Amino acid sequence: MEPKEIKENIFWMGAIDWDRRLFDALIPIPDGTSYNAYMIYGKDKTVLLDTVDPSMSGVLMSKLEHVKNIDFIISHHAEQDHSGTIPEVLAKYGTAQVIASSKGKPMLVDHLHIPGDRIITVEDGATLDLGGKTLEFIYTPWVHWPETMVTYLREDKMLFSCDLFGSHLALSELYCTEEWKVCEAAKRYYAEVMMPFRTNIKKHLEKLEKYATDIIAPSHGPLYNDTECIIRSHKDWVSDSVHNKVIIPYVSMHGSTQLLVDHLTDALTVRGITVERFDLTVTDLGKLAISLVDAATMIVGSPTVLTGAHPIVISAAFLANALRPKLKFASIIGSYGWGGKMIEDIQKTIPNLKVQMLEPVLIKGKPDSQAFSALDKLADEIAAKHHEINIR
Amino acid sequence: MKKYRCTICGYIYDPSLGDPENNISPGTDFNDLPDSWVCPLCGAMKDEFEAEE
Fold first, then answer.
1. DSSP A15-80
2. Which of A136, A195, A205, B45 is most buried by its number of CB atoms within 10 A?
3. What CA–CA distances, in Å, run from A264 to A243, A284, A373?
4. Contact yes or no for B43 and A197 at CB 8 A
């Protein structure tokens, strides 16, 4: 496929990975993804911004077939899905130099064995005049590694944001015309990759607000020529406000925990609270991560197996702990046959969640009316807590 | 001067070492770190740190 022209002398040079279904060997990506590289031709200098995943290096190299010269390759982020084809591009263009942040340089040397003398570093706010096109490098650490930066192209009011504002969405067009589609894909991306760095991103959004931007060109998924929705969504995701929503990730072996989950779902629903629940044996972890972005409360449901919590529950709880969502409240419900330490197992797994723990509901055997009353009490407490923090 | 531990990832800020990669010289007390300083391992803010006993 040929490069796609975005504006005069600015091209998309990326690769579309239509068939990829798992990212980071962890999160399903039902709509594939793309690795976006961009080319900018100034009057004097030519610049390639990022490259593509090495599994698709041939796609980028074929787009470069008729490109005689590249002066600089800007590496916003040293992760291999963007930097992985830099060595091949450097091999083709013997005088090209890589531009990276001060922390990016050693990472490129470590991860890709790029010779240090081919990398130059730029400071936050540094500019590069390509001849009629001026690039400004803006440090944005922790989106989502410590070295990350973005580039603003002044004359064209374009922001090359790398992973920030990215989405896993394979699309033949440059722009997505269906807002809901890109919004869910971008939320899935934010949820898995960016959520732990929410407070860092909040500062970056404020910093980037000063740059009048007509087009955002991220490193995954479509570009945005209407930037309002994606920025508004990110502002909501990184804000401290949560939605009137309870998420219930759970596993049930013989149906007791299932009965508890069913009852709690109804009890919360009649109290006007949105419930999103996930049977973890069949759930798409990306959907769970999306729900964690703005839920107020998480209730984990687990049976007791091998004297402790179900390992699939522990795995999901471990992920939630690593993603550091802005949950305010949490609790645990579940069942046991004769004993065990299910509750402690789960509690130990989620120390990073800055939540108020509500009284768990632990039932021996099949739930009875007393168990259902305890769940009603938990639902009342959740409703009261949500009311206290003014979400309804 | 006390050491401080990141409650998210376990990184220990040792004032005798500072954090030279992020322009914090050895001998800088945790409380004198700028508010913009974050955990060099996981990006956590200063308020996620606790003093080591």
1. EEETT--EETTTEE-TT-EEE--EEEE-SS-EEEE----GGGHHHHHHHTTT-----EEE-S--SH
2. A195
3. 18, 22, 10
4. yes
Which tokens is A369 given? Answer: 């009316």
Does residue B53 carry a pLDDT above 90? no
Beta strands in chain B (DSSP E): 4-6, 12-13, 49-51
Contacts of A199 in chain B (CB under 8 A): 45
Phi/psi for B24 (5° steps) reads: -110, 115
CB contact A146 to B (< 8 Å): yes
CA B16 to CA B29: how far, in whole Å? Answer: 8
Burial category of A209 from C-beta neighbours within 10 Å (exposed 0-12, middle 13-18, buried 19 and up): exposed
Nearest to B8 among A141, A146, A352 (CB): A352
Question: Token pair 């590289």 is at which residue?
Answer: A37
Structure tokens at A353: 């969640």
Angstrom distance (rounded) from CA A63 to CA A334: 56
C-alpha dihedral sign at A247, A347, A197, A146: negative
What pTM was estimated for this model as a whole? 0.95
Q: Does B17 touch chain A (CB under 8 A)?
A: no
Amino acid at A170: A
> Which of A 196-235 lie inside 8 A of B, CB atoms?
196-197, 199-200
Share above pLDDT 70 across residues of chain A, in percent, rounded to a whole number = 100
Residue located via tokens 């074929």: A62
- Residues, chain A: 392
- The residue type of A56 is M
Residue A376 burial class via C-beta count within 10 angstroms: exposed 0-12, middle 13-18, buried 19 and up: middle
Q: Specify which residues B51 forms β-bridges with.
A: B4
| Complex ipTM value | 0.89
pLDDT at A1 over 90: no
Question: Which two tokens mark A128?
Answer: 């590069």
Instruction: Name the closest residue on chain B to residue A352, using Cα atoms.
Output: B8
Q: Which residues are bridge partners to B6 per DSSP? A: B49
Helix (H) or strand (E) holding A340: none
* Strands, E assignment, A62-144: 72-74, 97-101, 119-122, 127-129, 134-139
